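Show me a record, fold above all:
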Amino acid sequence: APDIPVIDQAYSKLSNSITVEWRAVPGATNYMLTAQDGDSFVETIVKNSPGTVTGLKPATLYRITVRSINSGGKSQPSPFRKVKTVLAAPILSVRSPSCDSIAVSWKAVHMAAGFSVSLMRSDGLGRMLKQNTTNTSLLFTNLDPGTLYTIKAYAWNANGMPGDDFTYNQRTSPNAPVDVKVAFNSGALRAAVSWMPTEGALTYSVTVSSGLLKLRCNTSSASCTVPSLQCGSEYYVSVTAYNDAGSSEPTDAVSLKTIPCAPVNISIEENEPGHLLVSWSSVSLGHYYVVFVKSDDGLEVHCNTSYTQCHFQSDCGFTYFISVFAYNKAGQSPLGDVLNYTTAPCCPSDFRAVFISSDTVRVTWAPVRGADLYETRAAGGSGVVLCRDTATACTLSALQCSTPYNITVYSFSEARGSNTSCAPQYVATAPCSPEIKNISKEGLSVISVQWKPNNEEATYVVTARGEVGLWHCTSTRNSCTLMDLPCGSAFSVSAIARSPAGQSLPSYSIPLETAPCCPTDLVLTQVTQSVTNISWSVGRGAQTYLTTLESPNGQAKCHTLQTYCLLGCITCGTNYTVSLRAISETGLTSSCTYQGYSSSACCPSGVKLYRLSNNGIRVFWRASDETINYNADLCGSKGNFSCSPSSGLNHCDITKIPCGDVYTVVVAPVTDKGPKLTLCPKKIYSVTCSGSSVGMVIYRGKSNAKHI
């Protein structure tokens, strides 16, 4: 084994190690250093001197020995030396509480009697600051902001022996930025914040606060954009500089007022047609408001106000698009709700009402803007008549006659409903149809018509319509008289009512038949002594005729369809009244009277011929009336002979009548009119020549002959 080494010196420069120096031992390849503290020890093998034992405890007294080593083994330990490790370095805790100070603190070091702390700029500029203290903290002030400083500290013991030192680089916190500027972008609702860079700042933080809301923007440059700001808010903007030492004081807050929010609770009222009132709720930070109203035809108007309402003129049938903006120094609020308001459609114009009948009126009007549907309302009488249609015409039926109506045409739209401001138009319906109650005959050609007056202030016109023409009468009351109606005619009688409102429908027609006309010509012809033929002209409207010849002695009648009649049982020489009744098919009768009729005087009876001596013939008869004059006619082949007696005689003589001839003898009364009556019976006599120029007179008749 090698020799025992001899320690020259042993010392501690670091708190965890002791360095040993010794003289070299020949043949030794290694050395073992041992530091013993009580029962514990630390060994270290080194090649040569000096050698250092590490892993020791600071401020601790150790016994240091050295042993040499070779292949043969280890030597005995050298005589020990007692060496105490130096104090441990204080472990610094460093911060920059402000931009011009650094605070240093540490924990107490075992066996330390004091501490020495020095500080200087890491760039070597300026002077070093050094302080000794027995405390465990120091504050260096009046430093440069944002500057890197190197701090070194160590502890010493009671003998003034310094221990390990501790070095720490610390930067002071930066100064607050200056010249902070805020630019607000109203369209994007963001703020661009800029400032002058500050010394030693590594990053910056922009704080935008409003109440409890805080928005931050971090950057390493000298500007930052803060997005997503809220409208109608006042923000306070501050900038803080940061580095590894901490932060600066925030800058003085810069006030930022954003644009106002879009107004809400927008309402549109049309208190009266043509006037729109737009109102809204006030908004925070709104200094004034602008309301834009754009109609659907492209025309736009606006209103500036510091109040929360605006008035606008409006037209019917338009749709208005309304937006409200709030303004302040920051700009215009965002676009809020765009309301559309459709005004009521216009009232129909060019209104016309034309009556089609007394209970039906056709209403027409010009189309109006904004109307999708029209409602025609007729109010009057006992109710309301409605008509709805998309067309610009409507027919109102079943109206009450003779009734005033207020007819209003309302226009409707799906968006707004009805325009209730449309003015009604007064229209009166035509009078009601009269109801004919009675038709009576006041005379031969006079008819009285009565009806029920069911209208006010109406004029009634009664019309009798027939094949022969029209007859009218007019009255404002309940009756009128038709005059000069022709006989024998059929009429249809109806009545209408007229008023300024129009004309009623005609009443139901009442048939009217006038009595048949009396024949204008009536001729009586006596056929025989007891038979008279009556003939007459046609009486218009008559179907049958009843003729009557009446005298104190009785009457003769004949009822016939013809225009003539033979009446028997006529008494000769009698005055008759002549009457005729024309009877229609329905039984209407016209009593017609004519000039009296006198039957012919009675023919004489007992006509005989007597022979006279001078070739004459006496005609003898029995007169029915001594006041009647007679005439006797003898007609034969040799001549015609006649004689008339003096008044009151019943015979006359014909002289120089040829014999040997057959004569027809007629004795007839002489009428006032002159002509002889031919109705009397004819007798045939034969005048013979026997022994003289005048012979026998023989009555032949039809089959008999008499000798007179």
Notes: The chain has a mean pLDDT of 89. Residues 451 and 478 are 5 Å apart (CA to CA). DSSP finds no helices and 63 strands in the chain.
